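To: structure desk
From: M.T.
Subject: fold request, one chain
Message: Could you run this one when you get a chance? Sequence is below, nothing fancy, just the single chain.
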Amino acid sequence: MKNPKLKITKRDLPHWEFDGAVYFITFKTWQRLELTPAARQIVLDACLFFHRKRYNVFVLVVMPDHVHLLIHPLAKEESQESQEKYWSISSIVKFY
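Reply: Done. Structure tokens follow.
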């Protein structure tokens, strides 16, 4: 990989993105609401929707009130007009 790009954003904690890196992501339900088995299946399907299209999923665990993912964002196709070479974590997570 030539000249990887480091992006740093800040919310409650700093978020570092490095082109071509693998990320461990955790997100939780609103007010730690416990999901039914059917709702967990919907979350699982949503997390896998862009698998091999925008990112590769290595590990995915859907717990009753939160999710853990280990993913690798993929490079965007050259036809994309965005200046970002890889799918950003924020663009990936906003779909969950």
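Reply (cont.): The radius of gyration is 14 Å. Let me know if you need anything else for the meeting.
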